[in-house]
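INFO batch 0412 | record 1 of 1 | parsing
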Amino acid sequence: MTKLQCEDLIKKYEYLHMKTYKGKEISAMFTVPINHSHLQEILYLGSNNKSVDHILNKYDDFDVVIIYDYDRYLETGIATKDSLVSVLPDILDAK
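INFO prediction complete | emitting tokens
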């Protein structure tokens, strides 16, 4: 996916923010490289409203990552995540 496609997907499904999926609260969605590299750095910068373009500009293919229980991530540094594309059918079916 391109960065633009990821941004469009995040906008389209932003209503899922704060919804629960399999007992976990969907707290945030981020565009990340397809291999989910630099995730910790992207989360840190995103949580501080800093640009991640210098990271993303090194890549051509991207994914949207759902972060669950973001407050827990901030406390522990451990991110519980899924690819939005991989879980989206289940999330929509659960509604």
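INFO post-check: The helical segments are 3-12, 39-47, 53-56, 70-76, 84-93.
INFO record closed
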